[in-house]
């Protein structure tokens, strides 16, 4: 089993060299194991990864533990890739579909896309970090984009942003721990007549006030934000 060779190899690396050297060695071995296992993401591989994470943690190799923690189901990625010819021209469309599916671009999925479309991984990251629509970290179920363009700024966008940051307990650019909300500050969204505007996923909410914006954070599961919003509404 390649994964066991990897285990022994990694232990040898740890014993033979310093932590830095061991990590580099293992990164290469991780890639070799992935290739050897055909990039499968089934239960067996998931079990192996779990085993590896525990092993890495036990040996105090936090960085490698983090590497091994990322267990992404690649089945949806395969389904997306099956819809397109294996051609670099379809890179953005594929990334858009993957972003829609996972709500972000998992590293494992990008590795798979690189192979399937024959695009270097560095180029994929360049595209993924260039467009704001893509995210390399998990995003919340609802993405709240507070417009901070001139018209919205003049009409109170900073107050709305501060209020949302307080309610959700995150800063702009962050996601709540329960993955329900992501908060972003963005440039003009093209609805200046409705300023100030907050776009929730694809829906624009205009003419907002601090009181109205609280409603955008109300969901069934978000008890903290709901409680805070209800308390403020009562005042
Ligand atoms: S400035 Fe906010 S929509 Fe244009």
Explain what this protein looks like in three dimensions:
This protein folds into 3 domains: 2-63, no CATH class; 75-130, no CATH class; 142-234, Glutaredoxin. The longest helix is centred in the N-terminal third of the chain and has 18 residues, at 19-36. The chain has a 4-stranded mixed sheet with strand order 2-1-3-4, with helices on one face. The protein starts with a helix and ends with a helix. The protein is 57% helix and 8% strand. It contains 12 helices and 4 strands. The radius of gyration is 22 Å and the shape is elongated. The protein has helices at residues 2-16, 19-36, 43-58, 62-69, 75-82, 91-102, 107-117, 121-130, 150-154, 157-168, 210-215, 223-234; strands at 142-147, 181-186, 198-200, 203-205. The protein has 235 residues and is of the alpha+beta class. The protein binds FE2/S2 (inorganic) cluster. Residues 147, 149-152, 188-192, 195, 197 line the site of FE2/S2 (inorganic) cluster.
Strand-helix topology:
Elements: H1 2-16, H2 19-36, H3 43-58, H4 62-69, H5 75-82, H6 91-102, H7 107-117, H8 121-130, E1 142-147, H9 150-154, H10 157-168, E2 181-186, E3 198-200, E4 203-205, H11 210-215, H12 223-234
Parallel strand pairs: 1-2
Antiparallel strand pairs: 1-3, 3-4
FE2/S2 (inorganic) cluster binds next to α9.
What are the secondary-structure elements, in order, as H or E? HHHHHHHHEHHEEEHH
Uncertain ranges: 1-19, 37-47, 53-69
| Overall body shape | elongated
- Briefly note the CATH topology name of the largest domain: Glutaredoxin
Mean pLDDT: 77
Number of helices: 12
The small-molecule ligands in this entry are: FE2/S2 (inorganic) cluster
CATH architecture type of the largest domain? 3-Layer(aba) Sandwich
Q: What share of residues are in beta strands?
A: 5-15%
The SS-based structural class is alpha+beta
Compute the CA-based radius of gyration.
22 Å
Amount of helix: 55-70%
Adjacency order of strands in the biggest sheet:
2-1-3-4
Name of the CATH superfamily of the largest domain: Glutaredoxin
Q: How many strands, which pairing sense, and closed or not: the largest β-sheet?
A: 4 strands, mixed
- In the CATH hierarchy, what is the class of the largest domain? Alpha Beta
């Amino acid at each position: 089993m390649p994964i066991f060779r990897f285990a022994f190899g990694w232990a040898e690396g740890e014993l033979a060299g310093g932590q830095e050297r061991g990590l580099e060695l293992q990164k290469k071995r991780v890639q070799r194991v992935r290739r050897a296992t055909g990039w499968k993401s089934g239960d067996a591989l998931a079990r192996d990864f779990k085993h590896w994470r525990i092993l890495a943690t036990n040996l105090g190799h936090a960085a490698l533990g983090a590497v091994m923690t990322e267990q992404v189901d690649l089945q949806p990625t395969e389904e997306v890739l099956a819809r397109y010819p294996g051609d670099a021209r379809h890179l953005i469309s594929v990334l858009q579909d993957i972003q829609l599916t996972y709500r972000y671009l998992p590293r494992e999925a990008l590795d798979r896309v690189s192979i399937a479309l024959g695009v270097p991984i560095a180029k994929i990251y360049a595209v993924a970090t260039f467009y704001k629509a893509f995210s390399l970290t998990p995003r919340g179920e609802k993405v709240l984009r507070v417009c901070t363009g001139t018209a919205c700024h003049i009409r109170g966008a900073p107050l709305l942003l501060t209020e949302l940051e307080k309610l959700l307990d995150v800063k702009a650019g962050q996601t709540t721990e329960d993955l329900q909300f992501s908060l972003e500050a963005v440039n003009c969204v093209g609805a200046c007549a409705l300023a100030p505007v907050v776009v929730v996923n694809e829906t624009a909410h205009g003419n907002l006030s601090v009181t109205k914006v609280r409603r955008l954070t109300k969901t069934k599961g978000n008890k903290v934000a709901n409680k805070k919003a209800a308390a403020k509404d009562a005042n």
